[in-house]
Amino acid sequence: MIICRSPMRISFFGGGTDFPKWYLENEGLVISTSIDKYCYITCRFLPNIFNYNYRLRYFFSEEVKNVNDIKHPSFREVLRKFSTKKNILELVHNADLPAMSGLGSSSSSTVSAINALNALLKKKISKEHLAKEAINIEQNILKDHVGSQDQIIASYGGFNLIEFKKNKKFIVRPITNQKNINSIETSILLIYTGLQRNASVVEKDKLINFKKNEQYYKNIYDITKHVYSNLVSKNFDLKNFGKLLSEQWKNKKALSKFVTNKLIDEIYDEGMRLGASGGKLLGAGNGGFLLFICDRKSKLKISKSLKNFFNTKIKFSYKGSEILKIRK
Fold first, then answer.
1. Based on the structure, what is the number of domains in the chain?
2. Domain encompassing residue 30
3. How far apart are CA 30 and CA 28, in angstroms?
4. 316 neighbors 322 (Cβ within 8 angstroms)
5. What is the pLDDT of residues 206-246, one digit of tens each?
6. 0.90 cut: is pTM over it?
7. Are both 55 and 122 inside the same structural domain?
């Protein structure tokens, strides 16, 4: 039995520039971190006694003989590519937080499945290869409208600047100024809107309007570049970090009418009214978690005012996808 976990993530800056449609012509930049909330995959061989070859447990349960009959898209393609027909396999998925909430859980589960299956088959896979395989499955095989950052963050872990090159290569640059990172970590407040959404639907609409939105993507790229310079300096300004998050949120909202809605705007406005220095919705848009940057006093005020909405404490994580347990 193999147990693998891969972290969810917070993407601070650069979301949108990690889409091939942008970075293959312009290059992309993302500042993000993995967090201590995870997707888990348990994978094992089963004895040759059942009347199926694949047993899956996630939100639904599946027991099928043919891999083509698996309904879960990414698990089907991972099993198609990495499993063997000689064995009966069980794959079970669990997660610390809800799916479709802007924390990259979909890619995290894909990365975990690839990592777990390779470990079960006693094959080694590097972090780079792991990320590339997940990107290939989601973008090229499933044709999902997703970017390339989530698969990388889930594979590598850490607080990073990720550069996307025109030649399809990516570079992960760890940000090591721990004082600045700690300052951000203690200032974060995550508020769950209670709304779950299909990120691919929102992103598809953004890409349809890609040409007319080029300036907004350029703004997002330039903001990310500016923030990185501040993050690695000794004169880091947390309030300015928050203000630039809000500036990026304005640009992100301009990409599609589906990015925000009345409830999201009301929660965001309340957080800002009660003293947050800045904030944004995580993920593609239209639901999930709102991120605020605020001092301790403002954090208490916002939490109290928005007590009907779930909020969770998080810490940054640094390990990426890892095999937790191997049992014979």
1. 2
2. 2-175+317-326
3. 7
4. no
5. 878 788 899 999 999 999 999 999 999 999 999 999 999 99
6. yes
7. yes
